[in-house]
Design goal:
Largest sheet: 10 strands, antiparallel
Helix content: 25-40%
Shape: globular
Low-confidence stretches: none
Structural class: alpha+beta
Number of strands: 21
Mean pLDDT: 94
Number of helices: 13
């Protein structure tokens, strides 16, 4: 009997042989030697991914890793359906290009739509938000700049409701009005407090007002079409939902204080947040900070484009100056008032640290974003790599977090 079988919680069945659950895009992957990597290094990274799967908390994992611009890993492990906690087969392996929800990693990509407006001369990052959204100026928020908003220093980390109903996310204008009327948590706008969902609506509203496009249209015009991204979208159209795996709350039953921390940051319980992500309202809405869908490969393409200074495969999407400004750190590292851990932000990105940070060891040059506990999309100029690690298990399992850290450590061996 395994240790997981002895613990209360939700687990997936993990077979002794994983090969039937592994999908590899052999045509996309290059031989490690072509990018100066030992084959053993790539194998060690994939073995660490398999060990993460064996924790029993991820029904599906999708990983794409590029080094020196080339894909050395484009693989999935797990199932599109049939292997969630309590599900009865048949088990359908996860296709390598299946779209998964990026959750909070959506913030970085939505932020790029605002940076494009800066590049086009329609606004400046150091302009007040209220210059483009006058109603935001209430309760002293007229001082908040777009740069502060995108760095979680606008004082609006939560909706001003005691028990927020997730269905509110479907009502764009109501959310924007609520946030405009909200008194700031920090009237001096110096304290960093992670805006899990809130800031995205204000960023999106500004993008829509200055561009004259809906946010979905802006995503298509400024990112999806130039890069040829076929799965990138806010939510999922009904016709595409069968090709995307459900999210599952997995692992040990959450307990205090972890449950309190999750509710503090998300606004709802851990279980409810996971349930909502599978519901029609969430899949049909535009939630700028939380419901972008993409394949791991397409998410990796976006970060590779940024690593290249705004260009990918001969297509220039952003000017190098735009990318540099988007990645510029804002303020010193400080303990975040919502996440309760020290972290630095730029205008839209979570930044790495030395000697160890969000993206593993010696990641001080890295930039990217975390999504719902264990999704990670990032690029690291020091190692010349870009990575997208997407998954469907929402868990605070210590074993899962340990295995994730070990996987990041293996990736971090590149370029040592």
């Amino acid at each position: 009997m395994t240790l997981t079988a002895l613990l209360p919680g939700r687990w997936i069945p993990v077979p002794s042989r994983l090969e039937p659950l592994i999908q590899i895009d052999h045509a996309a992957e290059v031989a490690p030697a072509e990018v100066g990597l030992p084959a053993a290094r790539v194998q060690a990274i994939w073995q660490a991914t398999e060990r993460l799967y064996r924790t029993g908390i991820h029904p599906a994992i999708s990983l794409t890793l590029r080094h020196r611009g080339q894909r050395v890993l484009k693989r999935t492990i797990g199932a599109l359906s049939g292997n969630g906690p309590g599900e009865q087969g048949p088990v359908v392996p996860l296709p390598v290009d299946a779209p998964l929800c990026l959750f909070s990693a959506s913030k970085a990509i939505t932020g790029l739509l605002l940076h494009k407006q800066v590049e086009l001369g329609r606004l400046r990052l150091d302009d007040p938000v209220a210059e483009y959204l006058p109603a935001f100026a209430t309760h002293g928020k007229g001082r908040v700049t777009l740069r502060q908003l995108m760095a979680h220093r606008a004082g609006i980390p939560q909706l001003p409701l005691r028990h927020p109903d997730p269905t509110l996310l479907r009502h764009w204008d109501a959310v924007v009005d609520l946030l405009c009327a909200t008194p700031p948590l920090d009237p001096r706008f110096e304290k960093q407090a992670y805006h899990a969902i809130t800031a995205g609506f204000i960023v999106g509203e500004v993008v829509q007002r200055v561009s004259g496009l809906s946010l979905r249209e802006a995503l298509d015009q400024y990112l999806a079409r130039p890069l040829g991204l076929k799965t990138l979208s806010y939510g999922l159209p009904a016709a595409r939902r069968a090709g995307s795996p459900r999210n599952h709350r997995t692992g040990p039953t959450p307990f205090w204080p972890l449950t309190r921390l999750a509710e503090h940051a998300l606004g709802v319980s851990f279980d409810r947040a996971t349930e909502v992500s599978n519901e029609d309202g969430f899949l049909s809405a535009v939630v700028p900070a939380g419901n972008l869908y993409a394949s791991a490969d397409e998410a990796c393409m976006i970060f590779q484009m940024l690593l290249n200074g705004g260009e990918l495969d001969g297509v220039r999407v952003f000017q190098p100056e735009t990318v540099a400004d988007a990645l510029r750190p804002i303020g010193r590292i400080q303990s975040d008032g919502m996440l309760l851990v020290p972290i630095r932000f730029s205008a839209g990105f979570m930044l790495g640290e030395d000697p160890v940070g969000l993206y593993g060891p010696r990641c001080g040059s890295a930039f990217g974003h975390l999504g719902f506990i264990n999704i990670l999309c990032w690029a690291d100029p020091r190692r010349d790599l870009s990575v997208a690690l997407l998954n469907t298990g929402k868990s605070m399992s210590p074993a899962g977090l340990y295995r994730l850290a070990r996987l990041l450590g293996e990736i971090g061996q590149i370029g040592r």
